[in-house]
Amino acid sequence: MDITQLELKEKIQDAELVLVGIGEACQYDWNVLLQDSRYREIEAETEGDDRYVWIAPFLQKMILRRGREERWDRAYRMLGKILKGKNYFIVSLCMDDYVYGGEFDETKVVSPCGGFRMMQCDKNCAGKLTQMPEESYEAVMRYYRGEMPLAALEEPTCSLCGEKLRFNQLGVEQYAQEGYLERWNGYTKWLQGTVNKKLCVLELGVGMAYPGIVRFPFEKVVYYNQKAFLYRVHPHLYQTGEEIAGRSRGIAENPIDFLVSLEKYSI
Ligand SMILES: [Zn+2]
Fold first, then answer.
1. Whole-structure pTM over 0.85, yes or no?
2. What domains can you pick out in the chain, each with its CATH number?
3. In the chain, pLDDT over 70 holds for what percent of residues?
4. Residues 6+ apart with CB under 8 A from 198
5. Distance 159 CA to ligand 1 centre (A)
6. Residues with Cβ within 5 Å of ion ligand 1?
7. If you measure from the C-alpha of residue 110 to the centroid of ligand 1, how many angstroms do you get, rounded to a whole number?
8. How many angstroms separate the alpha carbon of residue 210 from the centre of ligand 1?
9. Alpha-carbon gap, residue 233 to 226, rounded angstroms
């Protein structure tokens, strides 16, 4: 038995509140697409042609719709088990939407980097999100299946201004924060309620991609709350600051593997 897993289990059971950060080391591995020969053909056909860059995210969406990959699915299921019955909040930096297929209360999840659930105007002309046009998705699928030529594909556009329509995620020209702000407000309110409470903070694969969203604020929360304890799981950026040395533990592991490993501990 591994002491760390058992200790984590106890700490979470004992905590009044649990704060979870999911970071880039948990991000679904899109290289899976490269194992698909049709995808490789498409890459070769569209390479270097700016008119077709929009197709790739639709193919990622296709992978997400096909079903959940077992390793990720087990990891998120375990996280759901750990959090069952607890008062928790999850901040996820991943853009793969895996956190939304888990068994979590969605009102307790915020993903400030966006994902594939909604689309937006590239310029965010009206400050709102829109559903993915199924006909665009279907057209890409037909092209993928070889039933339609590349030249027949048309990039979806904003119905208001005619700009490109893109998935609501960081990287678009004017990222529409409307996709997460309301939930973020809920999160900050929840955070205020953690003061002086027994709080267990679990960071899963949060590196330095956006340290201002999870890593630094989480450290600060633990620093100020003497009853808080931080677990930082990351393959190499697992170190925790000296000022919280007694109330934190770094775990040098891949976060997805770590979650899966908890299956052995009948949590
Ligand atoms: Zn627009």
1. yes
2. 1-28+69-112+180-267 (3.40.50.1220), 30-67+116-176 (no CATH)
3. 99
4. 14, 15, 16, 17, 227, 228
5. 7
6. 121, 125, 158, 160-161, 163
7. 25
8. 27
9. 21
